[in-house]
Amino acid sequence: MQNMASYKSQIKGELEASFKVEYQKISEKVTNNMDKLDCYVAIGQLVDLVKDKHAMLYEVRPDYTLDDALDSNFVKQYQVSEDFKNFPTVDIDLEALRLRLESKPVNDIEGIYNVGSSMEVGVYRTEKADSLVAVMLTSKLGVWAPGQIFMYLTATELPNRYDITAYGQVHKNLLSYKAHLVSNGILMSNVTKEGLKENFVHVDKKAHEAYKLHTLNDNVQYIWLNSFSRFGNADKRDALVKQIKNELNAENLIVDLRNNGGGASKISLPIVKAIRKSGVKVFVLTNFDSGSNAEQTTVRLKNIKSTVHLGQTTYGAIAYGLNYGYTYTSPSGFFSFTPTDMRFNHFLKYEVTGVAPDITLSPDSDWIQQTIDYINTQRL
């Protein structure tokens, strides 16, 4: 951790002294006999002293697969294991909890959530005002049992942001999410409120629709960029740049970066450069799943004078990155840590908090249509 660029650029002077004090406190608290969850949280407190959402601390996965979790013979053996029997569980009446949570409105963090199509969890406040727990109600995966804890959430100073310690949906290994946005009935992209009828925050498109210039009307064209991964996108990038040069003829261009988890600048920069050269008015869309290089691209597009940023704040993992992706296992063998090895310090002010939009869009209707409506109001 101390070799990371994020540590070296942030933890110095008085902060370095404070870090050493915190390290000493945490190291004295951690013992060989403590609970694995408590140990993970304690180590996480040390990691969180550096603003770097790319740096990852997580529990090592057990060696079973999703197919195993769906296999009745494996499940039967797993359910008699110590890992299953000792898994953290709540001691409350789940039916009474369900009845209490069913009436919670979509915009209340408390309530019943669907985890994909496999599980159902209830999120409720504990006796601490800033603390919530998500507990398993039903699961098609036999590795889970009703009453087992799915995640712990603690409110932060940022509106609707929570520090989350969760268990992986298949492997039940400990994971953490710093300053995670929970709003509009969406806890995570695949963990949504039971009463949420339609999810307009995320993109409902197939991957093959990305990297193509679409004409929406005489005045507006549209591009959805779903990823800037180096793998498989170079040819699509070149084809799109050619389209922008030859076919971008509307006055306004919507650049949709929703669900784009990032990638490489060598994919995104030529696209930004082509858009800048075109001279059109740019309207960039993001949601909380827009991260890393997608956030950098958002800022670069916003540096074009006429650009308007709409939608939802971005993820906040923008100032650092992973190139080599080395992972180190703790001496206990329980935890892994993947440090960052890339630095983009000019984006540091957006780290953790994300890039906030100029215009926040409503979760209740299609975001592309809302953007078109906004464009039309600017023409009046």
TrEMBL record:
Pfam assignment, any one: Peptidase_S41
Domain Tail specific protease: 188-362
One GO-annotated biological process of the protein: proteolysis
Domain of life of the source: Bacteria
GO molecular function terms listed in the Swiss-Prot or TrEMBL record: serine-type peptidase activity
The name this protein goes by in its record: Tail specific protease domain-containing protein
